[in-house]
Design brief:
Length: 573
């Protein structure tokens, strides 16, 4: 471990000289990285699993303390599932794929490749049999919707990254500007860059969760010891120095589109405007990104049972409340049909969950100011330092466009009711609305009754509707947060973004089957499920289940699977 590493772990500050030294160490490790064989890559992945497991308790306890989550709170499960459990699932799936490459030349897909009547190819990404996903995520499937022109033959002919064979060219150094909200993002972004993109990584921790840096240093110790990873700390000055450094070959950021534009085009103002207009970026290096979203929850009108409405209200509430809504995939706009008979009843169910759930510490900087702007009021009636769960019904985007043009990144959710002649016409109207009015291309949720899709005509209308949606991830009856957690689907904005209009970002992470040519993923689940998902805010005892999920990914075995499923049934009914 370098001096820069040791110093930064003690005081969360890395001097500019130490950043230079860390990059020098990464440069020195390039020949070793270039010569790493597939077997050695597999051993590196495998060796990270026990070190992540060993750091898991400290990881969760530290994150909970920083976010104001009490030791006995059910909310602790969030930090388990979106922290070490997510990282361990990624490592297990990656190890599976590398083993397939060693034996058969490429990862073995978990399900069929099918050609739809419209000509597009669908590639099954989940459930993964070796990970027992059919039992862990009951009734859920995830498919890649491939770009036009991709065929089954071209999928089979896709080449694996050359660095996995030890025969690649000179490796790049990627600066990963870590996310400050979800703890597994910085780790899985780093792992994606190293193992899948073939880069050595300089990870700069976000000041909001820099306390995780020392834990990540221990969790990813095999990569640090190999010289393939260095972790630094600091604010804007440290970030700018690392970005501009001659040894940094590319940049990856998880953050806001404003941060992205400042990196690419310079600070806001006339000079940034000129650079955009003349396509004259400040940054002369490749940049990939994930930049947020005004995430819609689209309710296709139809006949839902009382149980389905209640379950989906809890599902929607989870998408808002998880991580205090400091998520780029938190629902920001509920899109309904004005004439849907159950519209107010469904919103009442959501409001009831908001009213019965205590507020949480608003730990992310600037949250109170953003709440005042988007809620239009002071955060009264709640303890100091917290914010109330807020639903604003029937907004008019024409009168107040901020709700659809900017991500609030705070616990304010709106509903807009669209005019349409029929439920079928609603699909066209809402597709136009998401394409022309909503900012972002990261993800969307679509809630649809099975009865709507029974007729062949409606099924085609719905399939065409999904094809129109320009999002990287679509969850049908599922919160897209599950797509992030599955790890086999890629995670990122819809392809086609540009530097001057990045929307939700450029490029993918995760994608553990190494697939090229994906346009979006469609993940579908049932309208209800039992036992209750651990991420639901109404779950009474999710922590024991979450730790057993960590145990299962740490040591996959029939016994640990039985213990996990038994705990889910015992604690989740």
């Amino acid at each position: 471990m370098s001096v820069a590493q040791a110093t930064s772990e003690q005081n969360y500050h890395t001097s500019l000289d130490e950043i230079d030294h860390a990059l020098d160490e990464l440069q020195a490790a390039k020949p070793r990285f270039q010569q790493t064989s597939l077997d050695e890559w597999m051993r590196l992945v495998e060796s990270c699993i026990p070190t992540v497991v060993d750091s898991a308790r400290e990881w969760v306890d530290t994150a909970c303390k920083a976010k104001g989550i009490a030791p006995a709170s059910t909310i602790r499960a969030e930090e388990i599932t979106a922290g070490p459990a997510a990282a361990l699932r990624y490592l297990r799936l990656l190890h599976d794929s590398l083993g397939d490459i060693a034996k058969q030349g490429r990862p073995q897909l978990p399900g069929p490749i099918r050609q739809e009547p419209g000509g597009r190819l669908f590639v099954r990404l989940a459930p993964v049999k070796r990970r027992h996903d059919a039992l862990l995520f009951t009734g859920t499937t995830s498919d890649a919707y491939m770009e036009a022109g991709v065929t089954a033959e071209s999928v089979a002919a896709q080449e694996m990254p050359l660095h996995l064979s030890g025969k690649g060219g000179s490796p790049r150094i990627s600066l990963v500007l870590g996310a400050g909200n979800v703890s597994s993002i910085a780790m899985t972004d780093t792992l994606t860059k190293i193992f899948q993109d073939g880069c050595l990584v300089l990870l700069k921790m976000n000041p909001v969760n820099e306390y995780l840096g020392p834990i990540f240093t221990k969790g990813l110790a095999p990569l640090v010891e190999a010289g393939f990873l260095r972790i630094i700390y600091g604010g804007a000055e440290a970030g700018q120095h690392a970005i501009a450094h001659k040894s940094t070959d590319e940049v990856h950021i998880t953050g806001s589109n404003f941060s992205h534009d400042a990196i690419v085009w310079g600070p806001p103002g006339p000079e940034q405007d000129r650079r955009k207009r003349e396509n004259d970026p400040v940054l002369d290096k490749p940049i990939t990104s994930e930049l947020g979203n005004v995430t819609p929850w689209i309710v296709v009108p139809g006949d839902y049972t009382e149980k389905q409405l209640q379950f989906q209200a809890e599902n929607l509430a989870a998408s808002v409340m998880n991580n205090v809504s400091f998520n780029c995939l938190a629902t920001k706009v509920i899109v309904t049909w004005r004439d849907w008979p159950d519209r107010q009843r469904f919103l009442d169910k959501l409001q009831a969950i908001f009213d019965s759930t205590p507020p949480r510490k608003a730990y992310y900087p600037g949250a109170a100011d953003r709440f005042r702007e988007f809620a239009g009021k002071e955060p009264t009636g709640v303890p100091e330092g917290t914010l109330p769960w807020t639903l604003i019904r029937d907004i008019n985007p024409d009168e107040d466009p901020k709700f659809v043009e900017r991500e609030s990144f705070v616990c304010v959710t709106t509903e807009t009711a669209l005019e349409a002649d029929s439920p079928q016409d609603f699909l066209k109207v809402v597709a136009d609305f998401t394409e022309n009015r909503l900012w972002g291309t990261l993800c969307a949720a679509v809630m649809v009754p099975q009865s709507f899709r029974k007729s062949g005509e409606n099924k085609k209308l719905f399939d065409d509707f999904l094809a129109r949606l320009r999002y990287g991830a679509i969850g049908v009856n599922q919160w897209p947060g599950l797509v992030y957690g599955l790890m086999t689907p890629p995670w990122g904005g819809h392809p086609g973004s540009t530097l001057d209009d990045p929307q939700s970002g450029v490029g993918w992470v995760h994608n553990t089957f190494f697939l090229d040519g994906i346009e979006k993923t469609i993940t579908e689940g049932p309208l209800t499920a039992s036992p209750k998902p651990v991420w639901f805010p109404t779950h009474k005892n999710p922590e024991p289940i979450s730790w057993k999920l960590v145990d299962f990914y740490a040591k996959p075995s029939t016994w640990n699977l039985v213990r996990l499923l038994g705990s889910a049934v015992k604690n989740g009914l």
